[in-house]
Amino acid sequence: MALYRLWDYISFSENWKNCDTSLLDDIAPSWFARREVLQANSEEYKEFINRLKRRHAIETGIVERMYDVDKGVTETLINEGFISSLVSHGDTNVPKQTLFNHLQDHLDAVDFIFDIVKENRPLTKGFICELHQLTTRHQEFAEGRDQFGNKTKIPLIKGRFKERENNPTREDGTTILYCPPEHVEAEMDKLIEIYNELNEQNVNPLIIATWVHHAFTTIHPFQDGNGRVVRLIASLILIKSNFFPITVLREEAKVKYIQALEEADNNQPQKLVTYFAEIQKRNIEEALNIKEVSNTSLSEVTNIFKQKILRKQQEKQQQYDRTLAENRLQVFNYCSQFLNEYKHKLETEFDDSVALYIGSGRPDDATKQHYYYEQIVSYAKKHNYYFNRTLPKSYFKFGIEFEGKKYELGITLHHFGYDDSVIAIGAFLEYKGILPNEDTDTTIPLDIKPHVISIKDEVSSKEKNIRLHLENILTVTIAQIASEI
Hints:
Layout: E1 3-5, H1 14-17, H2 22-25, H3 28-41, H4 43-63, H5 71-80, H6 96-119, H7 125-135, E2 141-145, E3 151-155, E4 175-177, H8 181-200, H9 205-219, H10 226-240, H11 253-265, H12 270-287, H13 298-312, H14 315-349, E5 354-361, H15 373-382, E6 394-402, E7 405-415, E8 422-432, E9 442-444, E10 451-454, H16 463-484
Parallel strand pairs: 1-4
Antiparallel strand pairs: 2-3, 5-6, 6-7, 7-8, 8-9, 8-10
Helix pairs in contact: 4-5, 4-6, 6-10, 7-10, 8-9, 9-10, 9-12, 11-12, 14-16
């Protein structure tokens, strides 16, 4: 039987310190400002947070294979609340009462995390054990092995660290060795010590949360429930920094989460950091599409409208608007440079049989603001976000013409959601009929999500990810055209 020692005495390495967090950093400034507005004014935002809590409560148990719940029923429970009558026979693989006991435990635990943030309690072993006890309130047994190595059920010790080994065996027969029980207390002390040091050093909270998550999993301090507890601890760290809970979706567990954890086991943590950033960015993008003004009363919405108009007239607001204008133009210039570089590259590889051209409309050109308007509306609808048509936008038209065929790649830079400092870079492909028997244009769908960034502050640090997004757009576009030849 092969043995793999996953646990080693925990430490914080340079590989962790040097992880790229730009995927989240690129949008965070706008989110922090928008969050204050939503917290102050929006009832819809409060319900959004409640939905996030319910999603976490459901998915965390599915990922741990405690139960399964039909995907459609899951969405109903997230939107309507944990109501027993919403679940029918066959919607879950465990008794209904068992399911709702676990769901309520998980929901109480995530509520507890939010309460702890408000109270500003420090991370301690006592708190972690308290969280474990709450999370496993209705779980009586854990999986263990008897003296002959056979699987068996053992009573679950709640709120206390493990007293016996909990080393699982993989499908290939390899046994994973976590931290032995006699070292758990010392390792958890070390984890908390390093966590506090990283906070004092102002290490990016995304890195701190991801490192704590990984270190905790290698220790595996409880007999069972470690995954549920550590995702809550990582959530606590991120919520303290004005982000959201870490919720691993069932469809991402194997393809992203487990693979990223295994790479981190080999001191390659970037994929795990990136995955946690993707979770945060997904929630931020949804939150940016929440209205701050609720339809509560005419006097209330009139007052908010009045305050916004007054702010627009202030010098501070005018300087802010100038900063946004400068940054819009800078992002436009980054895109222009990349597209022209690629056009030049293609021109060196083809003869005159392929014609290439680039057209564009700058964000400060009022005469071209109507270009691609319908395509942007359609694109935003497809990707489920609000396109703010009142703010400046820009575009590029990358044309490729050969053998009687003409394709135009449209790339648009437009505002995303209800915050005026967030823009999206979207793309679509159009086939232009140029032969005598072709009198219609066709839009060819490209399965490319928008790249969403903040332009609230300097944008130079965002150039790398903008170029990567454009490279992905062109890769998908050229592959599509090549498949049609």
